[in-house]
Amino acid sequence: MTTVAPSGLAAARHVLDNGAVIISKEAHTVPAVTVQLSVRAGSIYDSNDLLGLSYLASRVLERGTKIRSSDDIAEALDARGVSLTIAANRHVMTVSCTCLSEDFEAMLELIGEIVMQPAFLEEEIEKCQGEVVNAIRQDEDSPAAMAMQNLFAMLYPNQHPYGRPAKGHVGTVSRIERHDLVALHDARFAPSTATAIIVGDVDRPRAVEAAGRVLGSWRSPQPREISLPHAPQDRPREERIVPMMNKVQADIAYGFTTIVRSDPQYYAYTLMNNALGQYGIGGRLGDNIRERQGMAYYVFSSFDANVVEGPLFVRAGVNPGNVERAIHAIDDEVRRMVGEGMTAEELADCKQYLIGSIPRLLETNGAIVTFLHTAEFFGLGLDHDLRLPSLLGAVTLEDVNAAARNSLDVNRAAVVVAGPYQR
Question: Are 82 and 99 within 8 A, CB to CB?
Answer without folding.
Answer: yes
